[in-house]
Amino acid sequence: MRYAIDVPNFGDYSDPRVVAELAHEAEEAGWDGFFLWDHMLMENSWRLHIADPWVELAAIAMRTERIRLGPLVTPLARRRPWKVARETVTLDRLSGGRLILGVGLGYPPEAEFEQFGEESDARVRAAKLDEGLDILVGLWSGEPFRYEGQQYHLKETTFLPSPVQSPRIPIWVGGYWPNKAPFRRAALWDGVCPGSLNVEWDENMPLEELRAALAYIKAHRQSDAPFDVVPGGYMPDDPAKAAEMLAAYEEVGATWWVESWSPRRGSLDAMRQQIRRGPPRR
Fold this sequence. Notes:
Elements: E1 2-7, H1 16-28, E2 33-36, H2 53-63, E3 68-71, E4 74-75, H3 81-94, E5 101-104, H4 109-112, H5 122-140, E6 145-148, E7 153-157, E8 171-177, H6 181-186, E9 191-196, H7 207-220, E10 228-229, E11 232-233, H8 239-252, E12 256-260, H9 268-277
Helix pairs in contact: 1-2, 3-5
């Protein structure tokens, strides 16, 4: 199992220098990945300091050498797929092929979409997400590519350079069980970032739900290529208890554990202490 840190792109984490230094410390402490949330506004009334995650990811790439990095998750429907194609290839090359692209519908739709006159209907966002992923893969190929969909229409276009990673940048799809559509989508790609609608914000996804979600993905999977299972949540402070908990998730099928740091969880100093303790490797 691999281990990663996942932090917001707002509040204490809105300074790219701070986030890049945290990622460097995570690499030094033995973590395998450092990921960022991707929010534009969150709640209109919060008056938060919010950073662009792609600028922060570039800063992380420049301050690290080994760890994987990326957005967990970016709401692709909020963005132009061809612009994301340019950004992701540039970041993959900057990092030496360490980018993982996490995608999802985005939350909350009122602040992230409606506030700016964007379509917030989940079905429309899902259609844009699916078509956007097809466009990304086509443009990443470096070959002439055209696209005619319901949401997007591209004349024949060739994007160069291609990503460092081959056959392409890995794509992880986020979703909350028992919603089925995100898990059907994940089955088409390289990994899933599963959560649960049945728990509170500070509770981990129950093992029985993860088991059910993975069985559902398996039933819809059409490839035998490697597939990452990336639950996230909160480890116990006690290293022995943390190792025991994560062993149970690994037994169900998890290939990564992402330690998520909500602002409600604690201060920046507490986050730094968590990073410096390192992952609970067995």
